[in-house]
Specification:
The chain has about 250 residues and is α+β, with helices and mostly antiparallel strands. The protein has one domain: outer membrane lipoprotein receptor (LolB), chain A, CATH 2.50.20. Helices cover about 15% and strands about 50% of the residues. The protein contains 4 helices and 14 strands. It has a 14-stranded mixed sheet with strand order 7-8-9-10-11-12-13-1-2-3-4-5-6-14. Strand 9 and strand 10 form a beta hairpin. This is DUF4292 domain-containing protein. Keywords: Signal.
């Protein structure tokens, strides 16, 4: 009897303790998580693999990437042996492009259409930087609906003129996806993955798509440094000696 009791005690001690259920989250908490992300990530320096896709096909390349809010961007697209193929800089609403192999330097206003030539997604520089830094803009909304599913939360924000925004969170309240709608048509989708606890939970993978334009791009970060001090000079691009500046078409 003593042996049997000892075995029962031993087996019972091997059974893991039940995991307490996660506390239910409300809309206020979920929106506060977005505000916390907006405050936490303001700039970035690192390497990234960018993949762009549209109706004509897809392209993938490595790049050195600098980002700083509100809308400063510097990208150096690298060739197979690390040589710069394209340098792009956006600062104060101005876009500059250097093409070393062609000996060309182009400059013009940083319009969404011009940015789309390099990302396939027609976004402003400010929108691009915010989405890439895990800072999802919210629409102005009149009411909202929160639903809890087995694996996630979905928060729907209903705005004016049939505009809506759906936010998807995991059960811990981490934002995974955001979709912007006009009526039933999705205008823009953004998804995050590869969350890194060593980087304050920053996602190393960002995917952005514009269904109506059949265009998308994704970023896979590596060697990331968050919130470095990046002065305006880091986003300044000058034409090489002897190269005439052309107007961006």
């Amino acid at each position: 009897m003593l042996l049997v009791a000892s075995m029962v005690f031993l087996l019972a001690s091997c059974v893991p303790a039940p995991v307490p259920p996660r506390p239910l989250l409300n809309e206020q908490v979920l929106l506060q998580r977005l505000q916390a992300n907006a405050r936490a990530f303001n700039s970035l320096r690192g390497m990234a693999r960018i993949r762009t896709k549209d109706a004509k096909g897809s392209v993938s390349a490595r790049q050195v990437l600098l980002l700083a809010k509100p809308g400063n961007i510097r990208s150096e697209v690298l060739g197979p042996f690390g040589q710069p193929l394209l340098l792009l800089a956006a600062l104060d609403g101005e876009l500059k492009i250097s093409l070393p192999r062609e000996g060309r330097f182009l400059q013009g206003a940083a319009t969404p259409e011009r940015i789309a030539r390099f990302t396939r997604a027609a976004l402003t520089a400010e929108q691009l930087v915010r989405l890439a830094l895990y800072d999802v803009p919210l629409i102005a909304y009149r009411d909202s609906v929160l639903t809890r599913h087995e694996q996630n939360y979905q928060l729907m924000l209903n705005g004016a003129d049939t505009r809506r925004q759906q936010l998807e969170y995991d059960l811990s309240g981490r934002l995974l996806k955001a979709t912007y709608f006009r009526g039933e048509n999705p205008l823009l989708k953004v998804a995050y993955d590869g969350f890194d606890n060593d980087l304050q939970g920053f996602p190393r993978q960002v995917s952005v798509s514009l269904p109506e334009q059949e265009a998308s791009f994704s970023l896979a970060y590596s060697d990331v440094e968050l919130n470095p001090e990046l002065a305006a000079v880091h986003f300044t691009l000058q034409p090489p000696a002897g190269v005439v500046t052309e107007a961006l078409p």
